[in-house]
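Notes, Module 5: Reading structure tokens.

Key idea: the token line is not a picture. It is a compressed description, and you learn to read it the same way you learned to read a sequence, by spotting repeated patterns. We will look at two proteins. The first is printed below with its tokens.
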Amino acid sequence: MKRWIKRSLGATADGISRLYDSFYPPESIHQNLADELVQTYRTLSQSQPNSNERLEEQWIKFRQQIRDQILQSSPKAFLRRPPLSHIVGLGNSGSAFGAWQMLRRSSNWRRYRNVLNEDPTGAPIRFFLMPSSGGNQIHHTGHLCAFEEKSQTTVADMKLIVEFGGGYGSFCRQVHRLGFHGKYVIFDLPELSALQRYYLGSLGVSVLPKSSWSDPSAEGVVLLQDTRELAEVVAALRAPLSPSLFVATWSISEVPKALREEVLQIVNSFDHFLIAYQPEFGSVQNSEFFTNLVATSERPQGWHHYPIPHTPNSRYLIR
């Protein structure tokens, strides 16, 4: 009942927040980036295998739905149309309101407030209590607030960040707005990597060519879909770029154990971690899995493992 009430309130707030649209700049489509995204999805649709044992069935279906959305309707307002609106378009959810309250209580509220002006790309729904921002933007900044408070450092101090499952690129954007200058690696599905290229490119964030992936002096974003390439890039960058941070908010806990274990082994020596997860996914008991991760890590000290106050049945794992 409570969950239904929260969803109803969120949907009502989303409806009211649409009235704010006329007060802010409309979405501007970068046609060359849009054409590149559409062509990438056409190519993926033609070559996409029917099954992949490394992915849950729901993710295979989701990939097809993403391609269909963009190919049938163009990238315009992708955050307001399913399936992306349901998966990465947070809007005025209870989690967004909880993150908003956490940010307001933070001693660094002024710093976070300065990075909460929403971009029109994708036409995100404005946040009811702060229409200059959006629910996703606030939600992701809340994760960064939790990380900085528990780790007693800032993302601006990081030199290498690897994010597993980057959505459409909003978290990456917020990290850069908070002062990050270094190498940012996103590992994701091909469809989402293509969407990240479109979104981050629209904002002017540098997406690096393959020739610069392993160059420690080249600042920007690396988009990967292959674990072998991820291992090669991390091996080349880990020593010269420190401190390092691994980020996975509800992503690493939503893939089969074989893939998550492979990725976590690659980043096992990282200085810092920001992980959010739900207790169970499929047949995997995530609480047990991540408790074991702490126990077997190269540095088992300094971890913070606790429930996320504003997101029921989810936990943070931060170092």
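Here is the second protein, with the sequence above and the tokens below, as before.
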Amino acid sequence: MGGASTRVSNVVKGLFSKGCDITVVTAFPHYPYGNVPIRYRCKALVREKVAGVDVLRVWIPALPHNTIVNRVLLHVCFIVSSLFALPFVGKADVVWAANPNLFCFFSALAYGLVKRKPIVRNVDDLWPEVFYEMGIVRSKLTRTLLDFLAKISYVVPAAITPISAGYKCRIIEKYGANPEKIHVIEVGVDTVESQILVNNDRSQFIVMYSGILGVGYDFESVLKAARILSKHKDILFLIRGVGELGSKLRHRIRKLDLLNVVLDTNFLPDTELSALLRSADIFILPMSGESFVNYGLPTKVFEYQAYGKPIICISDGEPAKYVQATKSGLVVKLGDANGLGEAISKLYKDRKLAIELGRNGWKYVSENLTAERVGRRMCEVFLSTGSKGHYEQT
């Protein structure tokens, strides 16, 4: 679950399809509720095969990802526990430092030093900038220390693989990283629907958000738009996912008495989730105003496109640029609930336009961002560091 794990999974599948030999060092399954399966408990390390890939799972505290403190504690613990696997990893030609952002680099540094191999640093989110914009870190001294650690993590690696051009610009401007070693590689998708599926049930027009219910998204504008469109009895808003904003959202929906909004926080198996996503007529991507989210490209934008449905994007950053460039949806200004309502009405009335936009997005990911294509591009980055073709991922 989550964008970071999707990113790693797609890259690993893509590399594997190119014949690369991969070792994945990761934590015991625990996200998002901290429920570690019984077979991993009271163990420091478990080795297993997943779809032909060698996976070394290491200990992690059984903590939920429901607070910033818990997340930081989990990340710090993984810096240490990921080293448990070092004696069991064989030959490697490159180390890919994937997740968690910033923290994983220091584990990868140990692997790189022991193996005497180059490190490639992945960037899914801008840390420590996230801490600053959320007001978690205010101390000037702490900021100086975190910026110093971040700069090391960008200067030392042989290559950097951010998921967006916005991240690349930020890394160059703030940390002075060499632009020649930064290669933008989007998250991509594992599978793409084989055909464009249109919801022919005209009794209900579904506007859907599916993903993390977190602070990076502007659900207030979505709820206000739902209230504006409440006169259309056949338009249903479906918000699904897990995250720290789940209870707050439920309270707001009740307070506003929004009968046309359904909140679903249940965990769904892949097959059920896929069926639910196919039922959408429109996907919404309501980015908040924080710059750290508008510099990046959420995984869900590619997944939305893979289902061949139009996207309405609330953003003034990379997500908006991407949706416009791929002609896969409509863009609304940050915080503009009225604009969101108008965009939904436009696609509600013009089904031909909705189908065209959805088809454009589907075509783009099909031709450019499948796991195989992402893996090929990542393989080229690894080879640019002088690697020969045996890969390790931490």
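Summary for the second protein:
- The first strand starts at residue 21 and ends at 27.
- The CA atoms of residues 20 and 38 lie 32 Å apart.
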